[in-house]
Every structure is written in structure tokens, then in C-alpha cells.
Amino acid sequence: MSTAPLLEVAGLSCRFGGLVALHEVSLTVREGEIFGLIGPNGAGKTTLFNVISALTPPSSGRVLWRGQAIPHSRPDQLSRLGLARTFQNLRLFDSLSVRDNVLVGLHRFAASPLAAGLLGSATVRRRQRQLEQRALELLALVGLAEEAQLPAASLPYGERRRLEIARALATEPRLLLLDEPAAGMNPAEKNDLCGLIRTIRDHFDLTVMIIEHHVPLMMRLCDRLAVLNFGERIALGSPAAVRHDPRVIEAYLGSAR
Ligand SMILES: Nc1ncnc2c1ncn2[C@@H]1O[C@H](COP(=O)(O)OP(=O)(O)O)[C@@H](O)[C@H]1O
Ligand SMILES: [Mg+2]
Fold first, then answer.
1. From the candidate CATH numbers 1.10.443.10, 2.60.120.260, 3.40.50.300, 3.90.550.10, the one assigned to the domain spanning 7-82+173-256
2. Which residue in 171, 227, 162 sits closest to 197, CA to CA?
């Protein structure tokens, strides 16, 4: 059996011109855990997600997926690898229905034009119906079954965030990266989201990496957390360990001044 962690970030640095967005960040994410990333605005959290998902090349350092380098690849290659993410700024197809947004995530399971030629149209239609059924199951899981036929643009913000999660789940990821999924939600919605993320992790046997500003929520939700400040990993460990870390307290008090 391989003992390589699901994800390993080793000595990762990322510079934009003179700005150091990440400085020698190392961490590992274990299979099945909910791993949190917190830190003040501009700390480099989204940049770390961008490097992990091969959208931004690092200046130095490595990202390993089960011990292997992640190729700089197209989104469909990443989803084949088992990596899916949501974005801090939502990227939904506003004019498509809620259901069709999830179908976009399912498209790699659809019959290709070549297969359609070989299999015949009845088989292709059956496959399409299966995918539509799957989309509805995923929508039910995130609490949006009733909204399936509405245009995505008509959903309130909190529901749009849950739709993005359903679409990411459609690709059947092993690792789900969530960038501020609770942004714009009220306290009750945030609480529900916490439960949903746990349910998803258990139901799909997933690993989750989550960025979120609401520290008490993260303390409740995450198995382990890393704290970034000005691109550096200043703490890593259980919620209890991170909460009492003097560097973390300083970073947060510093940013509140
Ligand atoms: N593509 C980019 N070009 C230039 N600077 C960037 C780019 N992306 C992020 N940055 C800068 O890198 C720093 C970290 O940004 P980001 O990772 O978005 O922080 P966070 O998600 O923790 O708020 C910020 O100073 C930001 O302005
Ligand atoms: Mg960010």
C-alpha cells in the first residue's frame, strides 16, 4: 500500500513581480480529512488553491498528488485526476438552469460523439437520462432539488454557493477545494453549510480543503488547519493547537488594528 498523503505541498513559493504571495509553504493533506486554510485578506490562500489546481505556476516548490507531481493541465485533466474546486467569485452559467449547471460538471461522463455513433441514439438518450437523474440527486444533497428548473441567476447568493458545490461534486472528486463557500451567507446558512460539508465528506468519502474567514466555524468544522499570513505558513495543527498559537493571535490582532 502506498503511504503517500493525498496532497503534499512542499516549499511552495509564488511571486507576482515583486510581490511574494506564497513563501516556502509546506503542508500535507491526508485522505478523508477536512483541512482548513485561514489567514487575513491577501495572505495567499486563494493563490495556494490556484497553484494546487494548476491555474498558477509556482515560482518554486512542488505540489504532489499521491506522491506524484500534478501536471499543469486543463480543467478536465484535473477532474480526471480527482480534483475539483469552487471559486471565491462564483463561476456559474447564469442563463442555464440550476440542473444544467450540474450537468456541465457531469459532461465527462456523457457519451462522446464517437461513442454515440457506435452505440446508437437510444443508448445515448438513456445515458443522458441517467446523468439528469444524477444531477437531481446531487441537487437534492445540497438542498436544491426544488430549484432544478430555475435559471441559476435567480438563486439567492447562499444557494448559488451550494450549486457550485453540487457542480464540483458532479466530477466525482477525491479532493474538493472550497474557496470561501460561506461568503455572503447569514449565520444560519453558515451553520447549515458546515453540516453539508461534513455530510459530503462522509457520503463520498472525500477529502476537503476549505478557505473560510469565519474562524469559529472553521474551528468546529476542520480536523486540521493551516494559517497563512503574508504568504507564510505561520501555524499548522488541530483547531485547539492553532487557536492558542501566539503567532496566530498576533496575525489576527494585527489585522484587526
Ligand atoms: N494574478 C495575480 N497577480 C498579481 N498579484 C496577485 C495575483 N493573485 C494574487 N495576487 C496578490 O497576491 C496576494 C495574495 O492574494 P490571495 O491569494 O488572493 O489572498 P487571499 O485569498 O488569502 O485573500 C495579494 O497581495 C494579491 O493581491
Ligand atoms: Mg482569497
1. 3.40.50.300
2. 162
Beta bridge pairs of residue 19: 16
CB count within 10 Å of CB 71 equals 11
pTM of the model: 0.91
Q: How far is the CA of 44 from the centre of ligand 1 (A)?
A: 6
Degrees, nearest 5: CA angle 171-173-176: 115
Q: Which helix (H) or strand (E) holds 60?
A: strand 60-65
pLDDT tens digit string along 16-60? 999 999 999 999 999 999 999 999 999 999 999 999 998 899 999
Q: Which of the listed residues 47, 86, 227 should we mutate to test ligand 1's pocket, taking the one with most ligand atoms within 8 A of CB?
A: 47
Residue closest via CA to ligand 1's atom 3 equals 16
CB atoms within 10 A of CB 241: 13
Report pLDDT digits (tens) over 200-221: 999 999 999 999 988 999 999 9
Q: Is 45 in the pocket of ligand 1 (CB under 6 A)?
A: yes
